[in-house]
């Protein structure tokens, strides 16, 4: 399966193709004999399914033979070595690759190498890698890729073909092969290949290590699967060829067992080996133990191996039994690495319809040739089913994650601004779509046909241009709107509120000056910062100074407005205590130009902390504050943004007064949803008014206790604002983080008073929207403010048939006021393919986007449904998606096999992360506010953010040579991957941990922390000392770098192994079982498989 | 014995009292037949440079229902150290301090010349005076500037320890906090929302947090100044700050679109001012001084909408019941006024605008609290500036001519009862044995509160003789009345002024001549006029006129000498001779006539009429006209069109206006520039004489009159022409074209016609 999927992508890569066939044929073809085995192996086949194709007929009978020990053994042999090598790495490096191999090895390794492995010192192993790596790696990787790829091309036809490989022998052989394949390419003869391959394999194996990652997966897949399916015992599912490929089959079926046995069979000979190879074993065992629970018996019975294992443990390592398959299952790290390697180098050119862009984790450049950059729009699938029936069947949500004002890397040009003069942008008369590259000019250019609604419009004379022989306008390349996917129009006065060009927007800083805010030092800090920050207000293009005006309000139980008119010697404070009926007490002098009023503003900011230094007022209001800001903007007739700095639950008598309703007892009850719902409807009403005025609200919270984020965030949420939360704020500890966030928030480019409309070609329709905005009707997304971090996710549904030829078009038009007060329209266009074959759909999906959508869907769902319902719905949908694939696209294979589409092989792991996120499955230490906060954050996250948020990055710091300047490769987020002799960095976009193993070398401790021993490191440290040594510089540089990538400053927390803080850290090891009951990756995969099986049966 | 005229004058100078009748008819029946009620004009704080206040407390009658104060009319038994109350005849022991009392050693209050005496009360901490400025910022730039300067100037006039506060208003209302350094703070209120006193105090943070105080710990004295100090500060501490603050005052910044009036929240501003003082300084002397340049246009107390095309209500609208905001606004201000009065504060209104400003609705604020009402065209005029300055004028002792929170109590001997009072006061609703059932003016009480008063504030107090005809007063019996005024002196002392007067009783049947001779027609005219003006509040104008006419006719019937049905035989004695003429001019006065006056003007005139002393009131009723000529020294002439001669300069004083009018010839001369020629220096002097005299009047009067310098044919001459008796009009042809006087183009009846009618009606037996 994986193969299949990978295949499609492959073509673009191009390179592999030639190889593929070769492989395919060679291995498969050759293997047929071996393939014969599959049938019996059923379970094993799982992974292989693709292969089965070819082999099926012969395979069965042959398989056994093929699997016949000899080849297998040979193959294994090499494999084993690889494994070891990898192992070595594995320990050190990412689990996946090494483990995968390991797993495979189990079978294979057992043979000779196994014993060696343990014995072999890692370094030894490494060495081999070391040398070959560079050159070898690449090839190897390619090979790996190719393999998968190769399979793919082949697979579609042969799809099932994999089956054969499943045969252990072949499989194992294959896997190693995969590794070997690298070599294989050379060795053409399939049959020979095996034999040759093996030998040949060895060399490649060396190279493998690097490749290992890619390779391993397959291997791991095999073994893990079994484990996964635990119940199914057969455990040995194949990792699709390369582990990276998603297909992992667990073959639970009883049949599998035999196969399993068979699998083991091959290893059989090595049984002892097995023992040696813990990983492999473990996998199996895990499979049985962990997930199986029930299965154990099966294990024993079905697996002769089991018995053997039991016996084996003695010699090498008895312990392994419990451990699961670490590496066999699809590894996010692997997938990310692969994509980086494959797609990071070439720019992504958007000219072709329906291309799947590189993953968000990959750095790539975009060349706009008619479709919007994936930075602006990402879709769950780039190939849409033609009919709604198909769509329903597949259950794959059709959604686009749109970030209309996304920031671009410096290398990419921001959208051109097109000025059509007084007539305004050219639009279709019927559907009002804007001129775009997909519009068809006809009748010699006198008319154009709308690509969305097919309406034929006249071309206005001033826009007329002749067509060339291809029917294209001669000036197509001179006009951004005819050649680019993204561009901007200058809006005419018709596009403005009240038919008046907008005045420049304003920022209003509204500062809580109640006792808590004063005492924590917040007010002083903030005022000090604002003095300099005001010089960095966003400005348009090359403007000398920002057009944005500023205003100041402080408040506790009453509001204080400040007149900072430049002509005043001193600012004037105006107190409004009528919070029940808020109004703005002044007009002139409230919103001012920073440069003109600088002296007065500085004086004000100097005095604010003094004025309230002795305050004893602890009560605050909230809604009136927003109301006041909104009224101020209304009075000034401009849009703008409020920056609210708030500390406590607003309990003072006023509209929007809240009471403490935090009740943990509600968790896991039907009433849990109330924790996410606002306490009162007042804030919605208020938000509506804000939106009408173009008043965006950013909220900075500094709570010491419950503040009801769920309610307070309503307005920011509906106005396109952001919420920042700094629990138990203390200047010393949190200053950096707060100031950094504040600076970024103030400086970022932002559009105001925006309306976004997504138009689609006939056949589909935008039906649902997620994000931070307000909608007063069903089509227009209204955003009081929109910045480059805010994302809107749009779901589409069919309302008619689509056409394969014409594809499907999206046009996202955003009308907004720039920070200089210019009214503009930003247009993003995207063309998608349409398919009549489900396989095409599954081949063009993007899991990260899918997860983004599903998380948002679920996070919105908790507002209205019990959390359990939401979780179940997620699981069901995911199962349906995968089952549909299995049923319609995968080669027929044993029900025991878990077959995942290549593009979605990470779906289970990611989904599991979503399911165990704080919102859907809160741990004991997660407060109600935290949940609401996270919920609200995720709703407007883009794909990259959700990706890392749900599956944190775990970076080993001391593994790679100090000198290397590149970011160390990530490892999987599991405790198993941590070695107590190392230091790791973990980040998820919000949190940043530095985990220090207990037995880290003293030298490292010294150079990083400036203390002499592990025990002297302060737990919970948030700043690394600035030390003048390579390691310290590197780590700090890395941290800075990570922070720079994220939209929010991540506060560093140093966690020592075995320390109490470690609990907090472990929460982010998302592949492990979580304390709050979240399933481990492996368990979840099993569960998923079960669900799928149920659906299939 | 001196004449009654002298007696009256003497009494007025000593006691500040003028009675309509100085010999009282001894029975109820007779009294009612006198037509003019037994009443007096009392000027409670009449300046008495010759009267040093005594530094002890008065001795009170021990009868709880009486509590009259020891006075020269009391019978004293020096041996027994007893005194008998002359009102209730209770016998009282002198207090121990009076142990040394004897015929030769009498305390001041027993000496006949101390029928009016002033005590200084030493008890209680003196509370500072409070001045709260409430300033409209919806003014033209010039006006605002002038007002700001006036206010800044006033700071130097205030006593240094007086507390000042500042509230400004326009579309919003701002209460300025004066205590802070650096940033100037103000509390802002929406101008459209009526707030209760409690809300205002909450919002200003004046309510003390409910901190459980140590039991019965009187932290009050410390707390209170602390709390209020944010908005009310001693002048000496913040005059610099406040001067700056006033200097920085800006015009209301909210845009006013074409065709609109600025939004002016006078109602709320006043309400907040009242609430602020109510919460912080109840029952201490305080002035709320409202400076406004236009009508309230929003919120409670709105008088006119902000659409300029809808003009502010006129008398015509009011008669047609077309003034849509009037009733509600009046109610709002009345409510404020009564709250203010209850707290002992007073409200001044300084309204300067060319159009009306809503004085009609707001008048109760000043009328009930004893505040000043000043109306002008602009703050940038000397009329306003000098008037305002005069508020802070000082007497010969260097004390401000103002007093606060006064309570006037009246006690009468048993033959009399109190019917009511007309003046800048509110009833305290104290019903005692000496309170009559019949009300005249504000009645039903023996005590009134006068929150703000000055040495000229005068009340009309009306009595009723209740002695029955069949229980004659013994020969030589005297009726007595005691006026007790407790007030806060501008030096912050509490003082009590006691005036005790007595008059002879006379049997009206046998001694009518005595009574007649003791008639004070001036006082009577003013007292009747006050009643008339008081009635206009509740009755239609014509009804009041009819009532006045009837009273006049009845009086003439009673006291005239005539043969029935023979008008020509009609004669009035000297003591009555001027009375009809007063009534004639009163009928034409703006107090009763609204024609040609806006409702605001009417309110303004009536306000002053109801509080000025007798002399000023008479001027208001019948303006004084002086004539200047080469023929002799200036002389008062008849207020008659016949006095308008070509070779005369006329100076008319109507109280509200000073008009200098140059006769036709004089005007021509001046035009020719004779006054600049040395040989005609006498002409120059002639021109200068009335100017000097006018200046003298202007200097003394409060409020500053409008000063009009005009000449024959000048447009402003109308002020003169509308006042004089139209003895020559286009209607009486015989006078037309003659050289004497100037004809007036009016249909009004002349005094002559009026008198003819009066005589006819008086002698007719029909009514």
TrEMBL record, chain A:
Coiled coil: none annotated. GO terms for molecular function: SNARE binding; zinc ion binding. It is a peripheral membrane protein. Residues 502-746 form the Sec23/Sec24 trunk domain. Residues 60-78 have a biased composition (Low complexity). Residues 425-463 form the Zinc finger Sec23/Sec24-type domain. Residues 1-116, 150-330 are annotated as: Disordered. Residues 24-37, 91-102, 167-177, 204-217, 247-256 have a biased composition (Polar residues). Residues 847-946 form the Sec23/Sec24 helical domain. It comes from the Eukaryota. It is found in: Cytoplasm, Cytosol; Cytoplasmic vesicle, COPII-coated vesicle membrane; Endoplasmic reticulum membrane. It holds the Pfam family Sec23_helical. GO terms for biological process: COPII-coated vesicle cargo loading; in utero embryonic development; intracellular protein transport. Residues 8-19 have a biased composition (Pro residues). Keywords: Cytoplasm, Cytoplasmic vesicle, Endoplasmic reticulum, ER-Golgi transport, Membrane, Metal-binding, Phosphoprotein, Protein transport, Transport, Zinc. Residues 965-1037 form the Gelsolin-like domain. InterPro entries: ADF-H/Gelsolin-like_dom_sf, Beta-sandwich_Sec23_24, Gelsolin-like_dom, Gelsolin-like_dom_sf, Sec23/24_helical_dom, Sec23/24_helical_dom_sf, Sec23/24_trunk_dom, SEC23_SEC24_subfamily. Residues 751-834 form the Sec23/Sec24 beta-sandwich domain. CDD domains: Sec24-like. Its main location: cytoplasm. GO terms for cellular component: COPII vesicle coat; cytosol; endoplasmic reticulum exit site; endoplasmic reticulum membrane. Belongs to the SEC23/SEC24 family. SEC24 subfamily. This is SEC24 homolog C, COPII coat complex component. The lineage of its organism: Eukaryota, Metazoa, Chordata, Craniata, Vertebrata. The gene is SEC24C.
Automatic annotation (TrEMBL), chain B:
The keyword Lipid biosynthesis does not apply. Residues 403-506 form the Sec23/Sec24 beta-sandwich domain. The gene is SEC23B. GO terms for molecular function: GTPase activator activity; zinc ion binding. It is a peripheral membrane protein. The keyword ATP-binding does not apply. Residues 520-618 form the Sec23/Sec24 helical domain. InterPro entries: ADF-H/Gelsolin-like_dom_sf (IPR029006), Beta-sandwich_Sec23_24 (IPR012990), Gelsolin-like_dom (IPR007123), Gelsolin-like_dom_sf (IPR036180), Sec23 (IPR037364), Sec23/24_helical_dom (IPR006900), Sec23/24_helical_dom_sf (IPR036175), Sec23/24_trunk_dom (IPR006896). One of its GO terms (biological process) is COPII-coated vesicle cargo loading. Keywords: Cytoplasm, Cytoplasmic vesicle, Endoplasmic reticulum, ER-Golgi transport, Membrane, Metal-binding, Phosphoprotein, Protein transport, Transport, Zinc. This is Protein transport protein SEC23. Residues 126-392 form the Sec23/Sec24 trunk domain. It comes from Catagonus wagneri. Belongs to the SEC23/SEC24 family. SEC23 subfamily. PANTHER family: PROTEIN TRANSPORT PROTEIN SEC23 (PTHR11141), PROTEIN TRANSPORT PROTEIN SEC23B (PTHR11141:SF10). Residues 58-98 form the Zinc finger Sec23/Sec24-type domain. One of its GO terms (cellular component) is cytosol. It is found in: Cytoplasmic vesicle, COPII-coated vesicle membrane; Endoplasmic reticulum membrane; Cytoplasm, Cytosol. Residues 634-720 form the Gelsolin-like domain. Component of the coat protein complex II (COPII) which promotes the formation of transport vesicles from the endoplasmic reticulum (ER). The coat has two main functions, the physical deformation of the endoplasmic reticulum membrane into vesicles and the selection of cargo molecules for their transport to the Golgi complex.
């Amino acid at each position: 399966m994986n193969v299949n999927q990978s295949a499609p992508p492959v073509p673009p890569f191009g390179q592999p193709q030639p190889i593929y066939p070769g492989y395919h044929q060679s291995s498969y073809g050759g293997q047929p004999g071996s393939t014969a085995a599959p049938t019996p192996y059923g379970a094993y086949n799982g992974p292989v399914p693709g292969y089965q194709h070819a082999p099926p007929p012969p395979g069965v009978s042959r398989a056994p033979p093929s699997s016949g020990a000899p080849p297998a053994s040979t193959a294994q042999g090499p494999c084993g070595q690889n494994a070891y090598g990898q192992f070595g790495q594995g320990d050190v490096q990412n689990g996946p690759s090494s483990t995968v191999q390991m797993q495979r090895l189990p079978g294979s390794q057992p043979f000779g190498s196994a014993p060696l492995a343990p014995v072999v010192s890692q370094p030894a192993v490494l060495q081999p890698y070391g040398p070959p790596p560079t050159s070898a790696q690449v090839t190897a990787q390619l090979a790996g890729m190719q393999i998968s790829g190769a399979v793919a091309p082949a697979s579609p036809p042969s799809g099932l073909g994999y089956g054969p490989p499943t045969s252990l022998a072949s499989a194992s052989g294959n896997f190693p092969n995969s590794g070997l394949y690298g070599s294989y390419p050379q060795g053409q003869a399939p049959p020979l290949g095996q034999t040759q391959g093996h030998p040949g394999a060895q060399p490649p194996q060396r190279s493998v290590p690097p490749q290992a990652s890619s390779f391993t997966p397959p291997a791991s897949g095999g073994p893990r699967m079994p484990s996964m399916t635990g119940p199914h015992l057969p455990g040995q599912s194949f990792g699709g060829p390369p582990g990276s490929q998603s297909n992992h089959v667990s073959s639970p079926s009883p049949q599998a067992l035999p196969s399993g046995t068979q699998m083991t069979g091959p290893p059989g000979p090595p049984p002892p080996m097995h023992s040696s190879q813990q990983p492999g074993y473990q996998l199996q065992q895990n499979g049985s133990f962990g997930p199986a629970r029930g299965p154990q018996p099966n294990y024993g019975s079905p697996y002769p191996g089991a018995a053997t294992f039991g016996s084996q443990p003695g010699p090498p390592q008895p312990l392994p039994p419990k451990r699961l398959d670490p590496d066999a299952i699809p590894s996010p790290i692997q997938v990310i690495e692969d994509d980086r390697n494959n797609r990071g180098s070439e720019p992504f050119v958007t000219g072709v319809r329906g291309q799947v862009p590189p993953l968000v984790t990959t750095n790539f450049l975009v060349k706009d040739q008619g479709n919007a950059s994936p930075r602006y729009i990402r879709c769950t699938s780039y190939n849409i089913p033609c009919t709604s029936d198909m769509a329903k069947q597949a259950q794959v949500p059709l959604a686009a994650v749109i970030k209309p004002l996304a920031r671009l890397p410096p290398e990419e040009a921001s959208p051109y601004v097109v000025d059509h003069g007084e007539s305004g942008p050219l639009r279709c008369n019927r559907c009002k779509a804007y001129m775009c590259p997909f519009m068809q000019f006809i009748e010699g250019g006198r008319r154009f046909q709308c690509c969305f609604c097919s309406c034929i419009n006249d071309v206005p004379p001033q826009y007329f241009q002749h067509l060339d022989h291809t029917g294209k306008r001669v000036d197509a390349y001179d006009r951004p709107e005819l050649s680019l996917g993204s561009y901007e129009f200058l809006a005419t006065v018709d596009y403005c509120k009240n038919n008046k060009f907008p005045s420049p927007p304003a920022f209003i800083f509204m500062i809580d000056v109640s006792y808590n805010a004063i005492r924590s030092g917040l007010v002083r800090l903030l005022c000090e910062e604002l003095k300099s920050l005001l010089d960095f207000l966003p400005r348009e293009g090359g403007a000398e100074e920002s057009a944005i005006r500023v205003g100041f309000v402080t408040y506790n139980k009453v509001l204080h407005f400040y007149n900072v008119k430049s002509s005043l010697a001193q600012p004037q404070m105006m107190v409004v205590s009528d919070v029940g009926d808020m109004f703005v007490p002044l007009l002139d002098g409230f919103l001012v130009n920073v440069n003109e009023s600088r002296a007065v503003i500085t004086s004000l900011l100097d005095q604010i902390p003094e004025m309230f230094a002795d305050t004893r007022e602890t009560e605050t209001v909230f809604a009136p504050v927003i109301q006041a800001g909104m009224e101020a903007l209304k009075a000034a007739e401009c849009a703008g943004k409020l920056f609210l700095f708030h500390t406590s639950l607003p309990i003072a008598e006023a509209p929007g007064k809240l009471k403490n309703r935090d009740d943990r007892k509600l968790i896991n009850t039907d009433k849990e949803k109330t924790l996410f719902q606002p306490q009162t409807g007042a804030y919605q009403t208020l938000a509506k008014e804000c939106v009408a005025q173009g008043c965006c609200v950013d909220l900075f919270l500094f709570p010491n206790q419950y503040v009801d984020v769920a309610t307070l965030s309503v307005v920011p949420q509906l106005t396109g604002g952001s919420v920042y939360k700094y629990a138990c704020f203390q200047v010393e500890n949190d200053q950096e983080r707060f100031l950094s966030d504040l600076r970024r928030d103030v400086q970022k480019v932002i559009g105001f008073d925006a309306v976004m409309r997504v138009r689609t070609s006939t056949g589909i329709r935008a039906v649902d929207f997620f994000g931070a905005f307000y909608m007063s009707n069903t089509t227009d997304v209204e955003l009081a403010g929109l910045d480059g971090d805010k994302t809107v996710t749009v779901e589409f549904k069919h309302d008619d048939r689509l056409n394969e030829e014409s594809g499907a078009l999206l046009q996202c038009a955003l009308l907004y006021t720039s920070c200089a007060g210019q009214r503009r329209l930003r247009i993003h266009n995207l063309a998608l393919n349409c398919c009549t074959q489900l396989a095409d759909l599954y081949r063009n999906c993007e899991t990260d986007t899918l997860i983004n959508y599903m998380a948002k869907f679920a996070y919105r769902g908790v507002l209205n449904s019990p959390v359990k319902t939401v979780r179940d719905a997620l699981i069901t949908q995911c199962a349906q998606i995968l089952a549909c694939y299995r049923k319609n696209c995968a080669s027929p294979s044993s029900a025991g096999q878990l077959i995942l589409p290549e593009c979605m092989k990470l779906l289970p792991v990611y989904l599991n992360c979503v399911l165990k996120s704080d919102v859907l499955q809160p741990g004991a230490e997660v407060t109600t506010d935290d949940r609401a906060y996270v919920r609200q954050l995720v709703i407007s996250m883009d794909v990259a953010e959700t990706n890392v948020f749900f599956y944190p990055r775990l970076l080993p710091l001391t593994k790679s040579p100090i000198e290397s300047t590149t970011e160390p490769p990530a490892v999987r987020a599991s405790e198993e991957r941590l070695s107590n002799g190392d230091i790791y960095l973990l980040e998820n976009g919000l949190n940043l941990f530095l985990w220090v193993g207990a037995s880290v070398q003293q030298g490292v401790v010294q150079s990083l922390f400036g203390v002499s021993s592990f025990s002297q490191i302060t737990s919970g440290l948030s700043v690394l000392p600035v030390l003048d040594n390579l390691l310290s510089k590197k780590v700090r540089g890395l941290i800075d770098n990570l922070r720079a990538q994220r939209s929010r400053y991540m506060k560093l927390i140093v966690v020592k192994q075995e320390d109490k803080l470690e609990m907090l850290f472990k929460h982010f090891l998302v592949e492990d079982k979580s304390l709050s009951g979240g399933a481990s990756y492996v368990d979840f995969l099993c569960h998923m498989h079960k669900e799928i099986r149920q659906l299939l049966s | 014995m001196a004449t009654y005229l002298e007696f009256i004058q003497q009494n007025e100078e000593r006691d500040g009292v003028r009675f309509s009748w100085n010999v009282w008819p001894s029975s109820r029946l007779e009294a009612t037949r006198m037509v003019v009620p037994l009443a007096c004009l009392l000027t409670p704080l009449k300046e008495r440079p010759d009267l040093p206040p005594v530094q002890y407390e008065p001795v009170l009658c021990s009868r709880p229902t009486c509590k009259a104060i020891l006075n020269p009319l009391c019978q004293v038994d020096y041996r027994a150290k007893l005194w008998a109350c002359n009102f209730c005849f209770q016998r009282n022991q002198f207090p121990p301090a009076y142990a040394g009392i004897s015929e030769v050693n009498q305390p001041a209050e027993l000496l006949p010349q101390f029928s009016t005496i002033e005590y200084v009360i030493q008890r209680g901490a003196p509370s500072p005076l409070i001045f709260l400025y409430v300033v409209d910022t919806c003014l033209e730039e010039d006006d605002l500037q002038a007002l700001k300067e006036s206010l800044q100037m006033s700071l130097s006039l205030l006593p240094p320890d007086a507390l000042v506060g500042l509230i400004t208003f326009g579309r919003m209302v701002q209460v300025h906090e004066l205590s802070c350094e650096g940033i100037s703070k103000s509390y802002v209120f929406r101008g459209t929302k009526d707030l209760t006193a409690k809300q205002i105090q909450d919002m200003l943070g004046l309510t003390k947090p409910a901190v459980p105080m140590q039991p019965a710990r009187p932290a009050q004295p410390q707390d209170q100044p602390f709390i209020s100090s944010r908005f009310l500060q001693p002048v000496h501490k913040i005059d610099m700050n406040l001067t700056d603050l006033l200097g920085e005052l800006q015009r209301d910044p909210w845009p006013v679109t074409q065709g609109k009036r600025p939004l002016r929240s006078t109602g709320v501003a006043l309400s907040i001012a009242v609430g602020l003082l109510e919460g912080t300084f109840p029952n201490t002397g305080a002035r709320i001084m409202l400076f406004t340049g236009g009508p309230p246009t929003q919120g409670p107390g709105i008088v006119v909408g902000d659409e300029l095309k809808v003009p502010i209500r006129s008398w015509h609208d009011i008669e047609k019941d077309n003034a849509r905001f009037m009733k509600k606004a009046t109610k709002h201000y009345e409510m404020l006024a009564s709250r203010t009065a209850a707290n002992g504060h007073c409200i001044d209104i300084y309204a300067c605008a060319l159009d009306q400003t809503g004085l009609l609705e707001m008048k109760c604020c000043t009328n009930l609290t004893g505040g000043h009402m000043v109306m002008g065209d602009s703050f940038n005029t000397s009329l306003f500036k000098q008037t305002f300055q005069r508020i802070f004028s000082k007497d010969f002792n260097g004390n401000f001519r103002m007093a606060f929170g006064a309570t006037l109590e009246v006690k009468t001997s048993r033959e009399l009862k109190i019917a009511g009072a007309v003046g800048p006061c509110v009833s305290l609703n104290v019903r005692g044995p000496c309170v009559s059932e019949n009300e005249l003016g504000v009645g039903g009480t023996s005590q009134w509160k006068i929150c703000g008063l000055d040495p000229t504030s005068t009340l009309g107090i009306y009595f009723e003789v209740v002695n029955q005809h069949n229980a004659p007063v013994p020969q030589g019996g005297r009726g007595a009345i005691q006026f007790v005024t407790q007030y806060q002196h501008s030096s912050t002392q509490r003082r009590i002024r006691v005036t005790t007067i007595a008059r002879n009783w006379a049997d009206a049947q046998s001694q009518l001549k005595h009574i007649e001779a003791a008639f004070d027609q001036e006082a009577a005219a003013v007292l009747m006029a006050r009643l008339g003006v008081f009635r206009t509040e509740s009755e239609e104008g014509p009804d009041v006129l009819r009532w006045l006419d009837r009273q006049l006719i009845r009086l003439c019937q009673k006291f005239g000498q005539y043969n029935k049905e023979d008008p020509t035989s009609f004669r009035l004695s000297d003591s009555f001779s001027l009375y009809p003429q007063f009534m004639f001019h009163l009928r034409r006065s703006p107090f009763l006539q609204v024609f040609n006056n806006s409702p605001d003007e009417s309110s303004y005139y009536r306000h002053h009429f109801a509080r000025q002393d007798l002399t000023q009131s008479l001027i208001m009723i019948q303006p004084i006209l002086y004539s200047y000529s080469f023929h002799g020294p200036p002389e008062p002439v008849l207020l008659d069109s016949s006095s308008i001669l070509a070779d005369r300069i006329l100076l008319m004083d109507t109280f509200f206006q000073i008009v200098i009018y140059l006769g036709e010839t004089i005007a021509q001369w001046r035009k020719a520039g004779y006054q600049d020629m040395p040989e005609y220096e006498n002409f120059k002097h002639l021109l200068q004489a009335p100017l000097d005299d006018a200046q003298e009047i202007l200097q003394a009067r409060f409020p500053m009159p409008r000063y009009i310098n005009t000449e024959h044919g000048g447009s402003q001459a109308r002020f003169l022409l509308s006042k004089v008796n139209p003895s020559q009009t286009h209607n009486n042809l015989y006078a037309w074209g003659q050289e004497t006087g100037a004809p007036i183009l009016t249909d009004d009846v002349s005094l002559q016609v009026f008198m003819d009618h009066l005589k006819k009606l008086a002698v007719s037996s029909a009514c």
